[in-house]
Amino acid sequence: MPALNADILYLLFNSANMHRWNDHMRPVDLTELDKQAHKAAIAWVLGRFEESAGNAVDWRTVIEHTLFSFIQRSVLTDLKPQVFHRIASERKGPVNEFVMSEFDRLVPDSDPAFRERLVEYLDSDRDSLEDRVIRAAHYLATRWEFRLIYDSNRSLYGIEQTREEIDEQIGQHTDLVGVRRIMDHGDSYHFIDLIGQLRFQQRWARTPRIPKTTVLGHSLMVADSMYLHDLDVGASDTRVYNDFYTGLFHDLPEVLTKDVITPIKTNVSGLAAILEEYEHDMMESTIIPLMDEDWQDGFRMMVYDPFTDIDDPVFGERDGTDLKACDLLAAYMEAFISRRYGITSNTLLEGERSIRDRLVEKGSGIGARMLIEGLDRMRI
């Protein structure tokens, strides 16, 4: 069975149904899918700071271990963070066995090599630089969420203790350059804050759906799908890095323009070109200056024309064609799963049909027909 298969896709996508801080007042909905996407983006920032400081970062490990931690959290649903972390440390063996039993139940035909590495990850001490980067990114993403809900929950018993616990966890990671930079509330903080704002932007904004998904959550589904596909084809480390982070950041310009639906882009004459020009200008004036200068050219490659195949002499290969197929796959799942849940509309039905046709046409590289058939067979 390929690493990229319908069962693992649904396991990841289903985290959009997991609501965070649901025992608190929330001004916006906060889901596990979005949290994991924000965490992955912050891990990139922290990793780049470590490289700038002269430390070697294994990006394939960062990507895969971020995905493994996502799988673990998706299986151990609805646990308060304090409970999750306590049982994960004090009852590590039984918890890991449960995670793998659930993973095997939910993804019965997973790629054997991928599964073996997941077992090794769960059993490991996770004390590498890459794992510390991921752990720090986790707490920084949690802190970003907490700042959103804090004012609405000041009167709740225990809220100050929660704040202190989050700050304490972040304080344990100040050996990382990027943590110190972000906590200074300078450009790096503003950059991850902008990324987080994609958690407010709903996909299919005019169409009722369950679950509602955001631009940032969608981006992680694209990135993870592409990573699993790259495992199947044996992609190089450089291509894995370019493919994953292009998938993760490809919609970042939408924080400046909102998620304009495709029919409007295609049917209003000249609008697509105007939006692209505006996004480019705003990226250069608003977002690019927030990152270190030596990161900027590589980041431009990720966000400008992300669905183009490249083989750059400096930055290496990127498979933009298959990235576009993964983008269509994520959009197809958003429509298909909502209809399976029983929430539909004519717009959603027509959108699903249109995306499915385009996915079949453009997705031979990722095995789109097999993935669609796998989703059709699932009891969702």
Figure out the total of helices: 19
Output the strand order for the largest sheet.
1-2
- Number of domains as seen in the coordinates: 1
CATH level-1 class: Mainly Alpha
What's the number of extended β-strand segments?
A: 2
Strand content: under 5%
Straight-line N-to-C gap: 20 Å
- List low-pLDDT spans: none
Mean pLDDT: 92
Overview of the molecule:
This protein has 380 residues and is an all-alpha fold. The chain has a single domain (6-377), classed as Hypothetical protein af1432. The protein is built from 19 helices and 2 strands. The protein has a two-stranded antiparallel ribbon with strand order 1-2. α11 (215-233) packs antiparallel against α12 (237-249). The longest helix has 22 residues, at 320-341.
Keywords:
380 residues; mainly alpha; Hypothetical protein af1432; two-stranded antiparallel ribbon; 67% helix; globular
